[in-house]
Write a structure and sequence with these properties.
The chain is α+β, with helices and mostly antiparallel strands and 215 residues long. The protein folds into 2 domains: 87 residues; 85 residues, no CATH class. It is 17% helix and 35% strand. The chain is built from 3 helices and 18 strands. The strands form 3 sheets. Strands 1, 4, 6, 7, 9, 10, 13, 15, 16 and 18 form a 10-stranded mixed beta sheet that branches. A 4-stranded antiparallel beta sheet has the order 3-2-5-8. A hairpin with a 5-residue loop joins strand 6 and strand 7. It starts with a helix and ends with a strand.
Length: 215
Amino acid sequence: MKNFFRGAWVLVFLFMLSVEALYCADAKAGSLTCVGLYSETSDGYVSYRAKVGKGDWLTVKVGDIIPATGEISIVVDRDWVELIPTGNPNTVYEIDGPDSGKLIKSVSDITKLKAKTVSFPKGTVDKPDPKFKNKLVVKQYLGRQIYITKDGDSNDIKYGDVLDTTGKVKIIATNTTISLMNAGGQITTVIGPLNFTVDQVLNNKNLYKFLNVQK
């Protein structure tokens, strides 16, 4: 009889775990994850709330998951946010601030917009992806980062951008960050303000003490 009750409790425990796992999966279904953000916080924030038309607005942070029932708000025209469907890193939506007033978009509306398709290295340390030799791919970022080509052209860095070894990166503000993936799938995160070359990251140079971390 003791073995029967012990077995019954084990089954109940396993059932509760499976229900919790299904709940977590459902909570992320249809949601969006923030992978890139530029927000002039002195003039306003990129914000979200969990339900359309209800609840308090929360400041969006990189890595935040916005539920399928939620919406975002942008009030500054120079701000932007990049969002991917949670669990799908190869599709990204970029939402720019409005020319005037406030922009509010639901997650449902965002997923109907035209998305950009990006790709990342599929290699390992022992077998790097040859398609990304001497390149770094932007995995996520916070704040405005500038990529400068060898010809001197400059562009705002966005999620999924492929940075060539001949280029340079300029991180403008303090405590803004960029995470870069190499051909072997390793990620280096650099914290600004800082100017550095793509080649320095590829060669694992310590750009500035404590400010670049590999994981």
